[in-house]
Amino acid sequence: MYNVRGNQCKYWGDGMYGLVLEGGGGRGAYQAGACKAIKEMGLEIGMVAGCSVGALNGAMVVQGDTDKAYDVWYDLDPASVIDFAASELADYAENGFRSEVLKDLVRNIKKIIADGGLNVAPLEKLVKDVLDEELIRKSKMGFGVVTVDLTQRKAVEIYKENIPYGQLADYVIASASFPAFKRTIIDGRSFIDGALYNVLPVNLVSDRGFKNIIVLRTYGLGIKRHFNRNGLNIVSISPSESLGSTMDFTNKTARRNLERGYEDACRVLEKHGSEPENG
């Protein structure tokens, strides 16, 4: 594990908290950094909900592997996510996935998308390698994810106890099935990224009775649905600087965003801990 700060965040607060992780693709490293700070502060998390990359990070929090999540992002590279020509990935990464570079990338992969989407077999393998379904199911923390069932044309907001045994990793992958990726198939049905329905599923936590909720923002693309804020004490941890493109999975950007997430979480939570709660 790598400590980006040199000293630990201060402990604050008592009681049980809900945690919501927004979708955001490559910006997910920011959440892993923030989760490291939350763990160091000793906050007790009772319920976690995530969309897209937030579902993956959230699952690792639930299984008690926040440090592993940090390390996965620290060592990340584009080839860990997309099975694309290594030389081309290197060229795009070298140019920082800027908007004009992404336009060129889109032009070059149009045929791939037309044939069913980018091959994200490396991402699927990564998810299945790092997630432990038994640990997630046995954890005292609740867990919910969002995806969209294209076959049945309906949104799916589902808790771990309602996911058929052996399919938990599949639902996490389905939640992160970006429209340009190959579709995730579960029981013969096609699924797509949950961000197309609810990129910030606060409702999955508040509906379980949690009033104190920490929200990890990335400002990723997607639909942010309205939820009832009455009675909720929401602490939002948001990027203090740009996190870069949601399709930037380069090592350099991931490490920078890990540090930003950790520092922002320490700053926000330490400040919040010194103020009265809003009820």
Q: Your description of this structure?
A:
The protein has 279 residues and is of the alpha/beta class. Helix content is 39%, strand content 16%. The protein contains ten helices and eight strands. Strands 1, 2, 3, 4, 5, 6, 7 and 8 form an eight-stranded mixed β-sheet that branches. Helix 1 links the parallel strand 1 and strand 2. Helix 1 (28-40) runs parallel beside helix 2 and helix 1 (28-40) packs across helix 10. The protein is globular and about 50 Å long. It starts with 15 loop residues before the first strand and ends in a 6-residue tail after the last helix. Residues 1-7 and 10-14 have low confidence and may be disordered.
SSE topology sketch:
Elements: E1 16-21, H1 28-40, E2 44-51, H2 53-62, H3 66-74, H4 86-94, H5 99-114, H6 121-130, H7 133-138, E3 142-149, E4 154-159, H8 168-175, E5 184-186, E6 189-193, H9 202-206, E7 212-216, E8 233-237, H10 251-273
Parallel strand pairs: 1-2, 1-7, 2-3, 7-8
Antiparallel strand pairs: 3-4, 3-6, 5-6
